[in-house]
Every structure is written in C-alpha cells, then in structure tokens.
Amino acid sequence: MNKRIYLDHAATTYVRAEVLEEMSPFFASIYGNPSSIHSFGREARKAVETAREQVAKALNAQPNEIFFTSGGTEANNWALKGIAAANKAKGNHIITSMIEHHAVLHTCENLEKKGFEVTYLPVDDNGLLTAEQVKAAITDKTILISIMSANNEIGTLQPIEEIGKVAADNGIYFHTDAVQSIGSVKLDVKAMNIDALSLSAHKFYGPKGVGALYLKKGVKIDNLFHGGAQEKNRRAGTENISGIVGLGKAIELADANIIQYAQRMESLRDMMIKGIMDKVKFVRLNGHDTKRLPGNANLSFEFIEGESLLLSLDMKGIAASSGSACTSGSLDPSHVLLAIGLSHEIAHGSLRLTFGDTNTEQDVEYVLDVLPDIVNRLRDMSPLFAQREEGPSYV
Q: Can you tell me the distance from the alpha carbon of 226 to that of 223, in angstroms, rounded to the nearest whole number?
C-alpha cells in the first residue's frame, strides 16, 4: 500500500485537536443563541467575544474591529462591495492586481457592471507588483486599493506595508486578502496601514465555513447582509458559534508558533524545490524564489499536462494541486500563471505542493523518489516532448 501524503494545505488544512476540543461543547452543551439575554445566550456571547479578542490580538487590532463571516470569500465580497457602495459619492475607481483570487476579481467584475472602474495592475514574471505601480494608478476618483498579501497559487508575497503607506498617504482605503498569509506570515494591520483584511479559518487548522473581516474603526462601509442586528448591526444572521470559537483558537495557536512554523515550512519547501530542479529537466519555479509563502512550491513541468500529473501522484498517495484549470471544467490554465508570462502549454503543466505541520523530510524524499518517473512516463506519451529542442521554452 502506498503512503498517503497531503501536500495541498493551501487548499485546506485539517482541524487541530485543540481546536476541535475547544469547539466541541458548542454543538450540544453550550448551544444558546448569543443574541438571547438568558444564561444560555450569555455563555455563547462570551465565547464569541473571546474569539474576537483572539483574532484582534493576532492582527494587532481592536476587538471591535473584527467581524465574523462565513469565510474569506464573503469577507472579500463585503470589503469590496461595501466600501465601494459607501464611498461612491467620493469616487468610482478601484485598484487591484491581475493575480488576485477570484473572490476579488469576480467581485471587481461585478462592480464594473454597476458603474465602477477597476484598474488591474500587471505583475512581473515572479508575480510581484510594486508600490510605485499602485501610486501611479491612483486618480482623483480612487476610493479603494485591494492587493492580496500572498498569492494562493504561486506563493509570492506582495510589498503590503509599502502599498499600505501609499494608500494612507493618499487618503485611500486599503484592503488585503490575507487568506493565504494568516498562520504563516505575521501581519500587523496598524504598522501596515491596512484598513480591511480578509481571513478564513480553514487555512490555518481551523474549521471550514467561518472567517473574519477586519475593519479599521471609521471605515465607511455598507452592509453585505441585512435582516438582523448581529455583529454590531454589520452582518445579519445567527452566528456560527462553534466555528467562531474554532477560528479564535486556531488563530491563537497559529500566532503563538508562527516563527517556528514558518521556518520549518521553508526548510521543507526549499528541500522540495531543490530536489525537483536537480532531478527533473525542463522545470520552472513559479513565483519569487525568496519572497514567497514558506510552505509553497509551485513548478511547471514542460511537455505534460497538470491533471495527468495530479492523477498519477494521487495513485502514489500524494495529494497536490495544479495550475491547470482542467480540473474545474475550464480549458484555460490559471490566470495567475498566464499573468506571470507563461504560455498556455507551460501553464497547463504546473504543480502546486503546499506544506503543513504534519509533513516531514521523509515526505519530501518520497515525492522526489516517485516524481521523476511519473514525469518521464508522461513525457514519453507526449508528441511535443518527442519534437522538443534542447533547452526549456517557458514562454
């Protein structure tokens, strides 16, 4: 029987035992509605506020600046739609990047249909943009800048602090999608001049279906949901108490161990990247070599298709993901890989390996043992490989 190795932590993580233990009472024992004034309700309310404090501490925010959501997608939608709607009298221009998560890009497309103008900034071949690019894109109608802190596919870290300063200097709201960063990269909303920040618990060993939006005190924003007074009249709907409790515990644990965790993930990541580059020809590292998430390795293998690579790895017990969008029913490869200059053919042969706290050096060694044979077998079936010229053709 093959080993089972999970290398898709950017997609989701398991729920830590301590988190699950913290959540457990709120399914059957402490089940009051936090909006109720009786003792059952007060117990639930106390748990929600404790979690709010835990999230605030991790971000260097105030508890009254934290609002719980159903996840990162809702938080992104709320930040962009809410700020756009509340500030449309001031302007209708939004700045973002071409490599944002679809939760931001599709929201921006929706806002364009409602009369807003959006500038999609290009990135370089490492997936980086600069604060100077952001500054140059500002007009007298700009009301919001939304740049992710780390890319979910290639792991590139953006200069968030510098962009935050540009936004602050120009009196423009700055939102960052930090879904991939929390738990791996320390973010300080005050030091980085962040006005709004999105996060999701299941990316840092918390439960699925719960996230949060940090909103700096004073930010003008409309509600996304209506129908109740929950979350200080900002987000209607009975709170997901067990999920919120889990989010709070997960972010507390992640923040307490963030430096050691990042160092360990970085070591595994670099071992994997070096091993693959040494053992396999016609391979390209996607994303910046050092300014990247500590647990992210994204590589393109020329002459093969990502879905075939994923299925072959899965047969060996290795779970990973690909920049090839075939798995989602689309013929187009990842918009991120195209934005960094890869051709469709090369982008289709990408592999994302993302590490977590259960991974070991032995896991890396196992991947390095089986991957070259898989790549060679798939290339032997490729007519493009047979017709190749020596040397890579990445773009």
A: 7
CATH of domain 17-256: 3.40.640.10
Unique residue bearing structure tokens 């920049």: 323
387 pLDDT more than 80:
no
Q: Which two tokens stand for residue 215?
A: 């909103």
Catalytic pick from 86, 137, 219, 326? 326
Tell me the average pLDDT across 134-156: 98
Question: How is the beta sheet containing 142-146 ordered, strand by strand?
Answer: 66-69, 211-215, 196-200, 173-177, 142-146, 93-97, 117-121
Residue 392 has pLDDT above 60, yes or no: no
Q: Respond yes or no: is residue 326 known to be catalytic.
A: yes
List the domain boundaries for the chain: 17-256, 258-386
Report, as an integer, the average pLDDT of 21-36: 96
Give residue 330's pLDDT. Answer: 61
Q: Can you tell me the distance from the alpha carbon of 134 to that of 98, in angstroms, rounded to the nearest whole number?
A: 13
Q: Which CATH architecture has domain 258-386?
A: Alpha-Beta Complex (3.90)
**pLDDT of 277 over the 80 cut:** yes
